Structures are given as C-alpha cells and as structure tokens.
Amino acid sequence: MRGWLADGTLDWLWAAAERAGVPIAMLATDSLLHIGRIAERHPGLRLTIDHLGGRGGTTTLKDDAAMEHMSELIKLARHPNVAVKATGAPGYCSGPYPFTSERATAWHTDSTFEDTLPLLAVLHAKEVPSQKGGTMFADMRAAYEALPEPRKRRLSGLTGLHGRSTGPAGERLYGDDKGVTEKKYQEVPWPAVTRHPVTGRPILFVNPMHTHGFVGMKRDEAGPLIEELAEHATQERFVYYHRWRVGDVLMWDERATMHRGAGDYRPDEHRIMLRTIVYPN
Ligand SMILES: [Fe+2]
User: Do residues 163 and 72 share a domain?
Assistant: First the structure.
C-alpha cells in the first residue's frame, strides 16, 4: 500500500473519489508526506487519516514513542481537505483510564539527550483544570549562583552525560518501561555548567531526568551528585509555579530553566495545552 501511494498506482482512485465526492480514510504511518502531495493534487478529495496517523491497534509503541510522527502529521494542517481522526488516541496511552499522565512531572530540561538544544518553548492553555494543574520552573542561573564555591569549582571541570529518561528521576518514573522509540539515541555530553548564549551568565546544566553521569565519574558517585544538584536547584526560592488560565501563552528559556508539570490536578478534569518548541536555525 505504501508503494502504491507513492508510485501512481492509485492515481485513478484519487481522481475517481474526487469526482464522486467520496471521502477516503486510511491508516497512514510513514506515508504522511505522500498523502500531503495527493491532497494538494486533488483539492476536492476529502482524506481522513485514521488513528492520528499512527499504527493503530497493532502497534506496541506507547505514549511519546507512538507519537514521533506528530510533526509530519501537523504539516498536513495546511491542506483543508485532510482531516485527522483521533478516536484511536487512547490506545496509545500506557496508563489506565482516565489516562492521567505522569509524563513530564519530574524536573527536566527538554531534550538534553539530543545533539541540538532547543532555545525556547511555548505553551498555550486551551483547557485548564478547576484547581491546580500548574507548570513549575526552576531558575538554573540563580541556582548556579547560589551554589557553594567548592561545588562550583568541582562542576567547572565536569561534563554531564545525557540520555533519554536515563537520569535518576527518569529511572524512578519509568524504570525499565521507558517505551520503545524508533530513533536510537546516543549518549550526549554537555558541560555541567554552560554559559547562556545571549547573556553569557553561567547556568547549572544538569537535570535529574536526562543526566545520568559525568565523564570520568563512576555511576554510583554521579547519581547522588545529580540528585543533590536537583534538590538544590528546585528549592522554593528558585521556583516559579504558573497557575494556568485559559488563553495563557507562556514562553520559557530552555537553556536557563528546568520545568515540570505539577501533576496535582484531578484526573477526571482536562488540561489541554498546545506546545511549540523553537530550535536555532
Ligand atoms: Fe518538558
């Protein structure tokens, strides 16, 4: 089927369905690019992508791992004749109904296990719980500044090692159940103290979700150090708790902060956010 979408075998079908006004629904994993082209060539053809463009009920991928195609899916939003059917979405959740998520409730800086670090992230609140459900931010510049001098000296020569949810908080939250991703992640090194790209201010760049060690340090020594730094950085004096109102747009500096979802709202209430991550060009 994937071949047929790309090689023209089904061109007669798109044209005939467009003429007859018959909508076509399909599972679409790995074919989203071709579907965009078909939608463009046949503006009168209504296409529905089932299961959020994922693999549907046959997949063993769960949570984030099942949604890695989301950026490709979102690109299709520019085609008014493409609709996405999300009724299969709960099937991608690893937890039980009512599908609360502990994801992102541990302190972290986004994507430090990637080669390129994001600059900014933006959250826009569409629906918020009646109480709580905030997002918390820790100021990692202030946290660095407040460290005792011997700690600063020790950190200045250290390079942190980052992986996908392999830090002590990631292990606690996910254990062996980190999910399967299609992309294979390598360990990524970042200096334990970085300079802010705009202000030049030093930043404590160690987070308990993704930092699992330091170059040249044994794991059993690194773990307690990572935990100690996380505890230090998340003291109330460095933390801002954002209480959401519908319509809020909140933007944060990815390099200079850690964040977490407070995860403290009633599970039968909704918390719907749109998220954008900005990377350097
Ligand atoms: Fe995050």
Answer: no
